[in-house]
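Quick one - first record:
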Amino acid sequence: MCKIIKSCLSGGNKVVIKIGKLYNNIETFKARKIINLFTILNITRERGYYFMSNDVKQKILDAAMEIVSKEKISGTRMRMIAQEANMSQSNLHYHFTSKNDILISLLDKMQEEFSNDRKNYISLENKTVNQNIRGFFDQKKNDILNKKKFDYTQIDYWVQGTVNEEIRLKFQNTFEIWRESIREVLSKGDQIEDTDQKYLDMLPYLTVSLMLGASLQYLIDEGKFDLDEYFNLAEKMIFGKIIRK
């Protein structure tokens, strides 16, 4: 009997599934049945390995984002994700064995998208410190106004991280990537005044807190304050005394 070993090895964006002895004896009846099943599941074969279609994975993660943004992580169920992705729950389980697997993959995808989007706002080579600092705030403003599902889901992951160790570690890394980007901007600038190093070390933490604070307040009480005014004042409060004009 052919043995299916599902090894969720994320080689790139592909979930790898190796079929024990199957690729050496592909003509057997049982093997053909499995291949037919994988065709239905949108899994393709390359050099003895089987890969989940990136389109299928994207479809599942998009569905998960939709459900989590509405129901929150605690209210999300595999059947809801399957229904949103327009597939059977058994089909979904072939791709992701548990809700936690989907949540971790979704968090990784969100971090990748967030980091890639940041490149549209930050350029160490072509922008001044002022422009790059403003870039962080502009990206957050865009997320709040135009990517509400992203922001709601990010906040819910923070809550989930208080009870799920794996998510907590992932989220710690997400915060550190964000803070490190701010450190890089500050370290590359020649506009920075001589300032107490402890103050400079604390700036990334303050900046991230103000950006998350904007999300928390604006999303729960939309329109209560002007985001441009908020971030203009945040820029002056945090960086006004250290950046030469």
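second record:
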Amino acid sequence: MKIINKDFFKINNKRNPKQGDFMIAEPFMIGRFFSRSVIMISEYTNAGIVGFVLNKIVPYKVTALVDNFPDTDCDLFYGGPLDTDRLFYIHTLGNILEGSLSITDDLYWGGDLESLKKMIESGYANRHNVRFFLGYSGWSAEQLKEEMNTKNWKMVPSGSVPVFPPNMNLWEDLLKNLGEHYSNWRYFPRHPSLN
């Protein structure tokens, strides 16, 4: 008889999180924002961490929620539980969009919204280079360290996750690519108590 591996849900993080990295939620995490989520860390400082959930879509378009917004094919995502009445965006437009903050060499967040609207109207900005979020995810440095110690997140280095185009199966796809140990998480039921 084969013994079940007790380390089935053990998370091995061999690095500390940093700006541009991705956080993959362990399968037991509950809640609308973080259950089976993938978060990109957009800012990492001693003052705190800002990130956006990449795989939780809002059932509305940006144009339905933001006044005077140009028609766009861009989807809208839940960025996290903080400031959910504010619009945030990540993009690959770089310094062409004034006021943008660098996440990695080729990925940015924020910037002048009026300029972005003009880029959308011209067709220069679209779902292949801009993603919109309602709200964001945030932690103090100590809070994230504690969550890492309790093994809530698997860290994946920047550049290893495609941000564009959006992928609603990102959590499952990343787990498949992390090997058998993490790949098996995909089969864990969302609500074990209902089995």
